[in-house]
Structures
1.
Amino acid sequence: MIDSIQKEIWFVTGSQHLYGDETLKQVAKNSEDIVIGLNASSFLPVKIVYKPTVKTPDEITHVCEEANISKKCIGVITWMHTFSPAKMWIRGLTILNKPICHLHTQFNSEIPWNSIDMDFMNLNQSAHGDREFGFMMTRMRKKRKVVVGHWQSERVQKKIGVWSRVVLGWNELQHLKVARIGDNMRGVAVTEGDKVEAEMRFGFSVNGYDSTDVLKHINKVTDKELNDLLAVYENDYKLTSALKEGGNQRDSLKNAAKIELGLRSFLDEGGFKAFTDTFENLGELKQLPGIAVQRLMADGYGFGGEGDWKTAAMVRALKVMNTGLKGGVSFMEDYTYHFTSQKSYVLGSHMLEICPSIADNEKPTCEIHPLSIGGKEDPARLVFNTTSGNAINISLVDMGNRFRLVVNEVEAIKPIEDLPNLPVARVLWDAKPNLEVAATAWILAGGAHHTVYCQDIDAEYMEDFADIAGIELLVIDERTNIRDFKDKLNANEAYYHMFQNRM
């Protein structure tokens, strides 16, 4: 479902012919050693590929052209080992359409005090060579990630790893197909948006389908497929007595399993990696998909409730970014508050569809409970608490003249008391800097009630993503105060009004 093995990030070193063949040979050798070192790092999820040193405008343009047309190349790391006159880069940078990470490093970590001479100085010029290159990208208004430090340090490798994961997610969006099964919840504003502009900006397509398109696949489910999936349910989850073989709700579980099998078949046949549904347009489906959606998200599919296609696409992108990390990613909603004079918290949940990738170590319980909306049979769902720790909530909203990404840093905690009568998966979190400021800033920013909840992905990832996408970013964290936040909103309005045609 998520495969980063076939993807590459190219490592391109800049220099020039001024320093002679011996220096250029050493530049190439050092660059190859850096690539070997980066590929040995546990922090990088994508293979780094060494490319020959570029020394002329034609060589630079050629490697940029190759990067553009390569299906494997998803991004480019640049480094100026010596001094590479930056006007040589104009033509190449003008056409390059892959994300850029500018690595400001040098091959040696320390100055060799007793042996340093001008030969050494001519070879190791990145301290000013990268500044020349940096000027040109700034002059050309090229958004990029800048990482400063020695290439062998853990901190530098982690930062490159963050960017690499974001580039994986960005690459996924370039060919992502989102199936919107039914429309959005009637009368709801934030789940709407400009799908044409979204495809132009992010690459993903959104198209509508009817529940009958899924029903065709449900009707083809065989008894063996059904029984095999029921056996998975029985092994992976704690089924209530009513759902076990012979229980009075067993048929409802069978219907839920058929929906999962049919929905999965529909998505796979159409090449969809993200989808939405809505309780107002279920057609002949016997129940609102609950456990089906939860398990599909756990397998890497993006999802948004009530037709929320923007969140569905972002869930998928964040799932790809999260590849190999311990924490999970889920569709989420700020559901209800816990206000006290000491501390206030948010209880996040949804009717049914919270991904078990964020669950605690307890085996989720599979249960069926009444659902008062939708007018269908009571749906099956997985019920669990989530792990404690730092996380973020993100919301992608359409502001009319631009897309805005809103991020709130939070800390999940163990529920203060048991929740014996709450039949849904849930997470309790402390919003940074506190609920009052965070909710005020979120509302002022126009953040949606649906979010993507991420346990291992942090705000740095979202900063890189916003730069690559060329969209607005607003982060609500420990340092946020409302007066400054309002100033930023006002400044951003002016900035995006003035420069929207250049973004």
2.
Amino acid sequence: MQTIKVERKDDYAIVQLNRGKVNAINHQMVQEIRRAFDDLETDSSVKGVIITGTPHFFTAGLDVIELYGYDKPKMNEFFNDFGGMYIQLAKFSKPFICAITGYSPAGGCVIAITADHRIMAAGEKYTIGLNEVAVNIQISNNLIRGYSYWLGEGKANECILGGKLLSVDEALDTGLVNEVCDLEQVLSKAEVKMKQYLQADEEIFKNTKYKLRRDWLESMEEDPKVDLEQAISLWWKPEIRAKMKAFVESLQKK
């Protein structure tokens, strides 16, 4: 694994996103997350998983600079794998906690909303949310359903259409995150919460988690062909490519 680290504790695991300063998500990271969670789902010695980032960045979202250079087949593969990762994480049956160590827009929020509990670092500049509309990326039905599960349909509608990134306080108020604490305490608090979850009978926890998520999970499109074709088509739309090129060039200057 080159973009993530997996640490085994007594009876749970910590998956750390670890790709450069901002943990930008590329195809390799998506594939490595999927492989790691496949292994952790089937490993009977692992009773739960915490996913976290590095100081100040859970992840800055998709690596638009790298993705902009993908050709059509590669981009098709990426969208397929990214959507598959989201479904896989949302259906992860064991206790799953997200320790959000800073910025978590777009792709970072996609990962975060699949968790059972989210703890975020306090910070005036940190933000989280699905701002795909603002950055000219088509959001999927599956993501809309997941966001609505936590925020409610009305608030999710308002935030998604507005391309809004929520401050830490706003995220706490809306229920997008469950706890806020100092950056240095995020992981330790996540471990405390994990130990609390692991006190429950394993089968009862899994069954209850599924019952709570059943409507959300059963509404998921396992093969979202129309969504995928729409996202791919719009990705290559000349007007959007021009805006993305300008965005990439601004990032490269930084």
3.
Amino acid sequence: MEFDILIYLCIIAFCSGFVDAIAGGGGLIQTPLSLALLPNYPIATVIGSLKIPAFSGTAIAVKQYLKKAKINWKFFSLLATISFISAFLGSFVLTIVNNDFMKPLLLAILLILWVFTYMRKDFARKSLVEVSVRNRYIYGILITIIVGFYDGFIGPATGTFFIMGFIFLVGYDFFKASTYAKLINLATNFGSICLFLMKGAIIWKIALPMAVCNGLGGYCGAKLAILKGQKWVRYIFLFIMFIAICRFGYEVVDFD
């Protein structure tokens, strides 16, 4: 592999970690650009390798968020276990089927969520719904099954989907939703990593340098998000969702 390609990949990893720590969606930067720079590798191998930097960036961001957030560890442990299994199964399916049929559905979902988020000016400041403890567990389990499988299967915008689910279904405010999303995203990444390790589908000479850069980006992004406050984060979140919509829209049109 040429050294300049590795440099580009490391820059991409830093930007991905930075964005993901603020509003989720770092995979929207890291995954398509890395696939474009590594056209000679199987898609599953590239995605498997990208799980290593994704894990490191999220882990470092989580450390920053936990300084400000209170976590129900019993609730988190249940969701983390479920999301680990879901992501493991999603990554297994990725190795045997084509995932292109998901993109039109994701495009429609992202459009709806973007409009709703834009219309709700209080999105980042308080909970949008009141949810009972029972329903919180039910919705939390459903979110981790569906989004966890998606993360293992496709990946980009996983953090965004987790955040939206924890806000609109579980009833958390943006900051708490972001913290839970990143914690559970660690479990989904780890589930995928275990599967790809078993398959021998990780390119370590790419994964390790990118992991360092993604972690640095995650640290800087989390610091900035905490410093600037949740209202500012909302605008970044809308921007990242807009990028996701453009990307999936381009691919859907391209496939047609």
